[in-house]
Amino acid sequence: MNDKLHAYIEEIIPDRSQLLHKMEQYAKEHNVPIMELAGIEAMLQLLRIQKPKMILEVGTAIGYSALRMAFAVPESKIVSIERDAERYQLAEKYMEEAGKTEQIIIIKGDALEVEEDVEKHGPYDAIFIDAAKGQYQRFFKIYSRFLSDGGVIITDNVLFKGLVCEPDIENKRIRNMVRKIDVFNKWLMSHPEYHTVILPVGDGVAISKKR
Ligand code: SAH
Ligand code: MG
């Protein structure tokens, strides 16, 4: 989408609470990659329609998307995983400030290691994958086992700033990352157990529905 249209969409998205603004500001100042505004709106709308009772999030950061989901689907319970100690603590603080500690449980640890803890709270009607991009396939394989029938898995950043379709990337680290995302996208799109659509909104949002 061109920048003008993108700016237009962001401009007409309704204003958010003071706390959410504060979190957006913090994320901006400290380079915390919270979900893009238009992308998160698309996800929240899907969740409002689906009304999941249990949501799993991989990658809490400071709790911004968890809080947005909690407000969008007030009847849901959210389990979210974060491995970074500082972000985990900040997320806990914000959840308290929002009065959402009952609705949102944050598990501190590496998503590749806290599987058992996560399983205890499951199964999940919606799973949101938004952590280390190089590990998406692993997160998907681990946690899709706890997805309820008819559940959805939402994956953020699958277009990686549009770089997924750039053939000549000089930076080796970024080139590797892009390759991994590309492999994940193709694997996901042809997965026999899921119907997947990639929405070119925000940083690219994949929505997979269990067949
Ligand atoms: N969902 C958040 C943003 C998450 S940013 C929002 O939109 O508000 C990605 C987060 O995932 C980072 O804070 C990072 O520390 C965390 N992360 C990355 N790999 C992880 C892993 N293997 N286990 C747990 N957390 C991880
Ligand atoms: Mg993201």
Mean pLDDT: 96
Spatially, the strands of the biggest sheet line up as: 3-2-1-4-5-7-6
Sheet with most strands: 7 strands, mixed
Q: Catalogue the ligands.
A: S-adenosyl-L-homocysteine, magnesium ion
Q: What structural class do you assign from the helix and strand content?
A: alpha/beta
Instruction: Give the beta-strand count.
Output: 7
Helix content: 40-55%
Q: Measured on Cα atoms, how large is the radius of gyration?
A: 16 Å
Poorly predicted runs of 5 or more residues: none
* Overall shape: globular
Distance between the termini: 30 Å
Describe this structure in words.
By secondary structure, the protein is α/β, with parallel strands linked by helices. It has one domain (3-210): 3-Layer(aba) Sandwich (Rossmann fold). 44% of the residues lie in helices and 21% in strands. The chain has eight helices and seven strands, in the order αααβαβαβαβαβαββ. It has helices at residues 3-12, 18-29, 37-50, 64-72, 85-98, 115-121, 136-143, 172-189, and strands at residues 54-58, 77-82, 104-108, 124-129, 147-156, 194-199, 205-210. It has a seven-stranded mixed β-sheet with strand order 3-2-1-4-5-7-6, with helices on both faces. α3 (37-50) packs parallel to α4. It binds S-adenosyl-L-homocysteine and magnesium ion. S-adenosyl-L-homocysteine binds at residues 33-35, 59, 61, 64-65, 81-84, 87, 110-112, 130-132, 135.
Chart the SSEs and their pairings.
Layout: H1 3-12, H2 18-29, H3 37-50, E1 54-58, H4 64-72, E2 77-82, H5 85-98, E3 104-108, H6 115-121, E4 124-129, H7 136-143, E5 147-156, H8 172-189, E6 194-199, E7 205-210
Parallel strand pairs: 1-2, 1-4, 2-3, 4-5
Antiparallel strand pairs: 5-7, 6-7
Helix pairs in contact: 3-4
Bound molecules: S-adenosyl-L-homocysteine (SAH) and magnesium ion.
